[in-house]
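Exercise: predict the fold of this chain.
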Amino acid sequence: DVGGGKGGVFTATRGLTAAFGDRCFNSPLAEHSIIGSAVGLAAAGYKPVVEIQFADYIWPALQPIRNQVSSFRYRSRGEWTCPMVIRVPAGGYIHGGLCHSQNIEAIFGHFPGLHVVMPSNAADAKGLLKTAIRGEDPVLFLEHKALYRQGPARRPETHDDYLVPLGKAAIAREGTDLTIVTWGAIVYKALNVAKALEKEGVSVEVIDGRSFLPFDTETVLESAKKTGRVLVAYEDHEFMGFGAEIAAQVSDAAFPYLDAPVKRVAGAFSPIPYADALEKAVLPQDEDVMTAAREILSY
């Protein structure tokens, strides 16, 4: 339902039909078909931008994304490309329960040939989206549902043609004592913790990863060498989450510079409950990030 007056469940595409006419249209609620149709359009020379209504329902499309979309260049020895943008609302903190709260970056980070991004604010969302549309490779564009209507995520573009390159992290806050690497909704929890610790004389650097594939390891390593302490904070399950890869890379490449082991704080290995108290118990909260930060600072 991206077409017409509604503009999708979150009204993110409202106005597109009025602006672009029949270039914006609805499809059956069949994720495999949506991606399969996009492959055909891309092969025919178009650049489709499709929406999967919720990340939790992308799984029927796993086969075409893995075996067709992401491998198009490889299978054709570079003769063919499969440019498309797959917009996917993801994440929790909205009391969405089991099937409207999932995070999927770790799974799709295993697909060579696919770019995966997640902006944390409106300016980066537009800048990344324009970069993704102008590129010649497929991009999985994750949009955190909890940030659609959040004031802190409202941010104007710095100029009319603001672009965010794929694979480039942003330093959301500079610091010298501790690095927090994060993305999505957790960026704001990390910033809250950084502001609180500042009152205690602790300087925290917050890095907004915003791009998973490719990932900006260089920026993270530079920060790790400066602060000597790294905390990776993310919403997905801690076990086998994308943060585990970041922690491994930092531990390998920056070990001589570290004053403490790299630490992670993330979601519990559990489905996301609906009840408020249970959702808070499973997903990382400000106090969880603060506790982890204090542990690594006291090492």
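Check your answer against the key: Residues 31-43 form the longest helix (13 residues).
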